[in-house]
């Protein structure tokens, strides 16, 4: 059995008979009071999030998790379909579970899906992805006094600020944590 101090983001725990994933946690020690851990949990069964407060010495039950490398196959309505490249099994996940990762998903793009009790709970994308520019307006000559940037659109439909020399059809690397242009690919 672990204590509340051992909580980490992405960890699965058994809380009040329900299996939950830790979305955020913060260890606090206010003035002259005892230390406690404040956490945001999302229930796997209901999908609802809740804020809880635990004593730092309170016992928690960690639930084993399994991570699998998968590839994005296609979008089916509002859902996203992922395929395991080893055994070709498919998993369909709701848009809420995929979250902001949907802005960087391209066909056959690799992701890491975390399962708890054979139910997908999180989707993680690489720190950077290579996307093709679909729309890049021409830069105006003489606008290069400083690091001037322009808004371009990539194949997933998001808009990114990039240098003036980027043209339609080029491949660029984007940081998925910040959503910013990194370099040509």
Describe this structure in words.
There is one protein chain. The protein is an all-beta fold. It has three domains: 2-62, SH3 type barrels, CATH 2.30.30; 66-124, OB fold (Dihydrolipoamide Acetyltransferase, E2P), CATH 2.40.50; 128-184, OB fold (Dihydrolipoamide Acetyltransferase, E2P) (Beta Barrel). 2% of the residues lie in helices and 53% in strands. The strands form three sheets. The protein has a six-stranded antiparallel beta sheet, with no helix packed on it. The termini are far apart. The mean pLDDT is 86.
Question: What keyword list fits this structure?
Answer:
185 residues; mainly beta; SH3 type barrels; OB fold (Dihydrolipoamide Acetyltransferase, E2P); 3 domains; 5-stranded antiparallel β-sheet; 1 helix; flat
Number of helices: 1
Low-pLDDT runs of 5+ residues are: none
Give the domain tally.
3
Query: What's the main sheet like?
Result: 6 strands, antiparallel
Do you know the CATH topology of the largest domain? SH3 type barrels
The radius of gyration is 21 Å
Distance between the termini: 47 Å
**Series of secondary-structure elements, N-terminal to C-terminal:** EEEEEEEEEHEEEEEEE
Structural class by sheet pairing and helices:
mainly beta
Overall helicity: under 10%
Mean pLDDT: 86
Q: How many strands in all?
A: 16
């Amino acid at each position: 059995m672990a204590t509340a101090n051992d909580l980490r983001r992405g960890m699965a725990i058994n809380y009040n008979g329900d299996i939950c994933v830790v979305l955020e946690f913060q260890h606090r020690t206010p003035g002259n009071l005892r230390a406690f851990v404040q956490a945001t949990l999302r229930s796997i069964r209901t999908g609802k999030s809740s804020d809880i407060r635990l004593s730092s010495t309170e016992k928690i039950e960690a639930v084993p998790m399994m991570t699998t490398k998968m590839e994005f196959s296609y979008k089916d309505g509002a859902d996203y379909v992922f395929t395991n490249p080893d055994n070709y099994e498919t998993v369909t996940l709701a848009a809420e579970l995929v979250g902001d990762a949907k802005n960087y998903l391209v066909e056959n793009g690799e992701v890491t899906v975390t399962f708890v009790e054979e139910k997908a709970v999180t989707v993680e994308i690489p720190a950077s992805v290579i996307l093709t520019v679909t729309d890049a307006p021409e830069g105006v000559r003489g606008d290069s006094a400083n690091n001037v940037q322009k808004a371009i659109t990539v194949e997933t439909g998001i808009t990114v600020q990039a240098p003036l020399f980027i043209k339609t059809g080029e491949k660029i690397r984007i940081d998925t944590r910040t959503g910013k242009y990194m370099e040509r690919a």
